[in-house]
């Protein structure tokens, strides 16, 4: 989870995740879409791969090309954790509200 949040801390990588949420991309297409150079995009993709947020495959017709896709299962894990945190804070805020309402009646 730490690596996923670390990867998502960068706005360029968040943009890459958004783009990959729509469809798979080649690295060069991602670089053009985001407005970075190929080497910079390569570094961002390496971080996302290491965090397990994206996967890559090589098409059979071009061994040099790599097509990147989003790993929905990993994002679902991040989302589930955020849902737990939100539920906890919703519960805490509800308890605080009930406490304040009880005290205001005194």
Automatic annotation (TrEMBL):
Highest taxon above the source species: Bacteria
Entries under PROSITE patterns matching the protein: HTH_ARSR_2
GO molecular function, one term: DNA-binding transcription factor activity
Signal peptide segment: none
Pfam hit, one: HTH_20
Domain HTH arsR-type: from-to ranges: 1-93
Protein name: Helix-turn-helix domain-containing protein
Species per Swiss-Prot/TrEMBL record: Actinopolymorpha singaporensis
């Amino acid at each position: 989870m730490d690596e996923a949040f670390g990867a998502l801390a960068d706005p360029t990588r968040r943009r890459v995740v958004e783009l990959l949420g729509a469809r798979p991309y080649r690295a060069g297409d991602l670089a053009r879409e985001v407005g970075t150079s190929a080497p910079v995009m390569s570094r961002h993709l390496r971080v996302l791969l290491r965090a397990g947020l994206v996967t890559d495959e090589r098409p059979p017709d071009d061994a040099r090309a790599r097509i990147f896709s989003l790993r929905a299962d990993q994002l679902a894990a991040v989302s589930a954790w955020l849902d737990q945190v939100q539920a906890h804070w919703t519960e805490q805020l509800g308890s605080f509200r009930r406490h304040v309402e009880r005290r205001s009646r005194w």
